[in-house]
Amino acid sequence: MNYSAKAGDPSKQRTPCLVLGIFSKRKLSDAAKTVDIASKGFLTSILKKGDMDGESGQALMLYDLPGTLCERVLLIGCGTQKEYNRAKHKEAVSKATSELTSGHTIEAIFCLPTLESTETDLYTQLRDAVIKSTEQSYRFDQCKSDPKAPKRPLKKLTLLVTDGKNLKTAQKAITHGQAMASGISLAKDLGNLPGNICTPSYLADQARKLGRKSPKLKVEILEEKQMEALKMGSLLSVSRGSRQPAKLIIMEYCGGPAKSKPVVLVGKGLTFDAGGISIKPHPGMDEMKYDMCGGASVIGTLSACVDLELPINVVGIVPASENLPDGDANKPGDIVTSMSGQTIEILNTDAEGRLILCDALTYSERFNPAIVIDVATLTGACVVALGSHAIGLLSNDDTLADEILQAGISGDDKAWRLPLWDEYQKQLDSNFADMANIGGKGGGTITAACFLSRFTKKQKWAHLDIAGSAWNSGAKKGSTGRPVSLLIQLLLKRSKQIN
Ligand code: BES
Ligand code: MN
Ligand code: ZN
Predict the structure, then answer these.
(1) 231 included as an active-site residue
(2) Can you give the pLDDT at residue 303?
(3) CB contact at 8 A, 259 and 368
(4) Is residue 174 part of a domain?
(5) Which of 379, 435, 446 to mutate to test the pocket of ligand 1 (most atoms within 8 A of CB)?
(6) Are 142 and 10 part of one and the same domain?
(7) What's the domain range around 414?
(8) pLDDT digits 0-9 by tens, 458-469
(9) What is the CATH number of the domain that holds 85?
(10) Closest Cα to atom 18 of ligand 1
C-alpha cells in the first residue's frame, strides 16, 4: 500500500473516495461537518433518513455529493464521541479498509476523527491507521494454487490532517507505521508458513536475504559443526532428533556509533514442535508450526531497523531447530551440558524452547549488550495465565521491565509482568544435574523464565512469553506478528526517534 500525508480542507479533496467519521447518534465529526456545510446539509439529510446512526461497525457509501470534488464519500460509524478512543479509531480504520477493498475503491483519503488525550496523540493514531489498514489488507495465500485476491484492492491511502502544522508529525507517523507494518507482515508470513517449508534453513535464508538489503546489516549463520565447537550441547540436543540441521542465525544491525552497546534480541525459532519423545497430544498440533514466532518477530524487527535506518545497534539472534521424536532424539532423563557449562536434566523433551534459548543467551554475551530481550512461545501455562491479550514479561531488571511495559502500551502490544522470585528457583532442582528443564506443578511460565535467568545473570535481561499472543486459533487461525510493535516501539524510543 502506498501511504502519504496531506493537509487541507476535507470538502476540497479531489479523490475517488473521502472517508469520514460519524459518531452516534447521528453526530458529525469535525471533518464531516465541513463536508456537510460544503454540500449544503447533504450528510445531515442522509443521516435524518435513518440509513446510519454512527454506531461502530456501520458504514455507508455515498456517491456524487453536491459541492465536493470527490467521487464518493464513505461514512464510518465511530460510536459515541465520549467513548471514542484509540481502540475505536483502529476499529474505524479496519472497517474503512475492508469496505474500500470490497467496494473496489483503489484510492482514498482518510479523514477519520483523531483525538488528543493522555492515552494517545496524533502521531500514534496516524501510525495506528497505517499499521491497521495494512493489517486489514494482509493475506496469506502463498500456499493456495488459485489465490482469490481482491480484484481491485485498496492501493493508495492519503491521511488528511486539517492543520498544516501537523504535516511533519503525519509524515513521521507514516514512515514509522510503514516500517512497523512491513515488519509485522514479514513476521506473520514466516509464522504462517508450514513446518515443511519454513525449516531452520528457510529461516536462515530469509535472514540472509534481509542482510542483502542493507550494508548496515551483517548476517551470519552458524552451522551445527560451529555450534559443537562452541559447546552448545543443550541447543544441539534438541535438533539431534530432527533431519533438518539446526541453524544459529545472527543478524547484526550497526546503525549507531561503533562503541555503543547493542540491544540484543533473541527469538525462539522452533520451526515445528511435536514435543519430541514427550510427544504432544494430536489435537491442534499443527499450531506448533508457530513455535518459531519469537524468531520471526526478531527477524521482522531487524527488517524494520533496516527500513528506518535507526541510529542504534541491534543484534538479532535466532536459534532455529525442530523438535521431533526419533531414535536419536533427547530422552526423558538425558543430561546435557550447555555452553555455559551448566548441566541440564531433560525431564520433559517438550520443554525444548528453554534448551535452545539458553545457549543462544550465553552466546549473546559476546556482544556486550546494553540489554537482552528474548521472545518465545515458551509455555502453555502463559496461555492459561494471560490468555491471548497480554504478553508475559519476566525480568531481572525493574527499569528494563518498566521500559518494556511502556513500549507495550505505546505500541498497543501490551505485556504484563509476572514475578521472577528466588522462591520459584527451587522447583528446578535436579537430583542428577545442575538443574532440571521443567519446574513441576504450578507457575510454569515463571519456572521457565527462572531456567533462562540462570543463563543471563550477567545481563540486564527480560523474557517475553508470547505463547498466547503470537497467533490466533480457530476460524481466524493465523500469526499476529506480535511483539514486533512492542520491540520497534522500544527501539524508536531508545534511538530518540520519538519522545
Ligand atoms: N512451544 C511449547 C509451548 C506452547 C504450548 C506454546 C502451547 C503455545 C501453545 C513449548 O515448547 C512447550 O511444549 N512447553 C511445555 C513445557 C512443559 C513441558 C513444562 C508446555 O507448556 O506444555
Ligand atoms: Mn515443546
Ligand atoms: Zn516449543
Answers:
(1) no
(2) 98
(3) no
(4) no
(5) 379
(6) yes
(7) 181-494
(8) 999 999 999 999
(9) 3.40.220.10
(10) 351
